[in-house]
Amino acid sequence: MFPLRPHAAVLSLLLPVLLLSSAAGAAESGDAAAFEASLHYQGGLVTLPNGKAVLNLGNKYRYLSPEDTRRVLEDAWGNPDGQGTQGMILPAALSPLQEGGWGVIVEYDDSGHVNDSDATTIDYDDLLADMKKDMTETNAAREKAGAKPVHLVGWASKPYYDAAHNRLHWAKELRFGDAQQNTLNYNIRVLGREGVLVLNAVAGMDQLAAIRPALDGMLAVAEFTPGHRYADYNESTDRSSEYGLAALVAGGVAAKAGWLAPVLLFLKKGFVLVLFGLAFLGKKLLGVFRKE
Hints:
The chain is α+β, with helices and mostly antiparallel strands.
């Protein structure tokens, strides 16, 4: 594994997403160069492994397969488990190993067709207040388990739903424990016929100005293929999700249950914090906490 330096942590609320931003460079430049050379980058138009969506990367972004994504997440960024993704999108001009490098993990949540009828009625200020309250309750359990708290500072960018393209995006400002620098958690959800494409990016708040243009451009990168698009939904035959747009922002099924329970795994190697999405069913919340 390449040595890591302390920087940003990752937040993923229940939807199975993994991301770590600002991966540090390798101590040995030769090792980093060899690892970089072993990655199989793809550009242009890329079809995701599940065949349900494509990425229009142009010349600004590039893509790594699920296997290469696993290697980056586990071997370079120190995640315990980097499997189960649909791959990763990275800026073409940056290596995931260099200072300031970042990427967006892509996953597909097949929990059903999300009804967007609440798009114009959601009060996101009230939703933020509820999320902060739930986070406070979760932190009490975290601290009891010996883990540091995660604080939701506020919206870095208030949620916005593009009804014409069925894309929801927002950004949260987070504070992990007593970290001096807050974390930017940028989220994109693309709604489809029977599921949602989940894209998350995380960086330090001081990186917002630098990476925001790239993230804004990434809004249009992912789209569903014909037959899997939002407009292809057939109410009589297709599955419907149990939650709407507000719950996607708050954390999907977790929001319905009143949980909002991110799990923070403290990895001693490199003293870097990695927050890791989990499959909720079959796991007890406190059972997955680890002490620093």
